[in-house]
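wait is this the right file?? whatever heres the structure
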């Protein structure tokens, strides 16, 4: 049974958005959101098992389409405060299916208990662990949404600074690229995000590092942006991040990065989470997955 896009928007506004604010503690937010997202609709034949990558917990997700010589590292969103492999199981599984990879949905450390740079260190440890299995970097793609999209960029920036080979491509779903929050599209009535929750996340994760490029990739040096692997970027017409994402896309292109961008009209922040339940969400995940697959060998 498929849910209409408008019904999913209303559900997000009335049920999910009230949880993600400043009324509940981050620990309480995590418990409630995990409970709400515990029943995803996955591709037929999906297998999910807990594992670790570089000492970091993760879910290893495979579908009948998964090739074991290709990997997807998925970094979930949640303002660095919430989110888990449970909340992002659907998007991880549908991306694994569309990319033909084994997906690893990382359970990186969250703020306020673990502020910056904990998430970046966990992402790098997991990425290095994939390389240590013998996978060539050109057989690995990294994707993430919201804070996880910003984290995917931070991972690439950190890897480059250390001389670690970069993945084949990055898939960015409404990435959080500026923790200063000065460029939010406040004129848009976002069904999910609120400025208050984003401020809590930015303050809890990186209060004294908001202008660091690993926290605000929009501020990265043009030479670092130019060295990024090819990027596929989605943003939604009904989200607070849309202007910042488009500023980042323009900056990356101006620096010389290869960027494919699409603004999703009628969508809100990371509507991709409804993949399997909402036709339009499944379609945009398939689009992202198809592009990432084309960046891999024999794609």
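ok assuming it is, sequence goes like this
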């Amino acid at each position: 049974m498929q849910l209409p896009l408008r019904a999913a928007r209303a559900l997000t506004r009335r049920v999910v958005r009230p949880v993600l604010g400043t009324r509940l503690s981050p620990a309480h937010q995590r418990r409630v959101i995990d409970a709400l997202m515990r029943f995803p609709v996955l591709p037929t034949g999906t297998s999910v098992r807990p594992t670790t990558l570089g000492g970091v917990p993760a879910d290893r997700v495979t579908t009948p389409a998964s090739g074991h010589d290709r990997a997807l590292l998925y970094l979930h969103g949640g303002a660095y405060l919430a989110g888990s492999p449970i909340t992002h199981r659907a998007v991880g599984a549908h991306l694994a299916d569309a990319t033909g990879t084994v997906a690893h949905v990382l359970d990186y450390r969250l703020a306020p208990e673990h502020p910056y740079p904990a998430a970046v260190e966990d992402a790098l440890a997991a990425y290095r662990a994939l390389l240590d299995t013998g996978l060539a970097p050109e057989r690995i793609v990294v994707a993430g949404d919201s804070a996880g999209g910003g984290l995917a960029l931070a991972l690439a920036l950190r890897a480059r600074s250390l001389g670690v080979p970069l993945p084949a491509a990055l898939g960015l779903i409404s990435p959080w690229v500026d923790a200063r929050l000065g460029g939010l599209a406040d004129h848009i009535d976002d069904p999910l995000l609120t400025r208050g929750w984003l401020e809590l996340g930015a303050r809890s994760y990186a209060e004294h590092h908001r202008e660091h490029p690993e926290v605000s990739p929009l501020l990265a040096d043009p030479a670092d942006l130019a060295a990024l692997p090819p990027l596929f970027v989605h943003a939604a017409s009904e989200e607070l991040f849309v202007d910042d994402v488009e500023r980042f896309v323009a900056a990356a292109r101006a620096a010389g990065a290869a960027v494919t961008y699409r603004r999703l009209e009628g969508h809100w922040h990371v509507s991709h989470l409804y993949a399997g339940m909402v036709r339009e969400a499944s379609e945009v995940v398939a689009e992202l997955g198809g592009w990432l697959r084309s960046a891999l060998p024999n794609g």
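The mean pLDDT is 97. so i think its the right one actually
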